[in-house]
Amino acid sequence: MGNRLALHNKLSETLGITNLYYQQPENYKLNYPCILYNQEVGDIKKANNKVYSYTKKYSVTCIYKTDNENIILEMLESFEYCKLERTFVSDNLYHYIFTLYY
After folding, report:
1. Using an 8 Å Cβ cutoff, are 96 and 62 in contact?
2. pLDDT at res. 2
3. Dihedrals φ, ψ of 29, to 5°?
């Protein structure tokens, strides 16, 4: 598993999107297509009252102005520990939300 900057670069290269935002600040105008991602509570494994393994978990939202179902297959094929959570349309923007362990 890599670090956040490695994930940033892999997302950009895999999906061909240069507008990536980590923990997007409020009142920031987004340029589409874009990817928003932030870190969540990861997978913790314990033994003998100690942490012996921790895998970082990210929520990744891909936003497009037009429908792009290809993104689903691209993400699932490119990232071993990736799961599509949901898709929806809001304000005529298509959102694809993934959970990703990296």
Report:
1. yes
2. 66
3. -75, 125
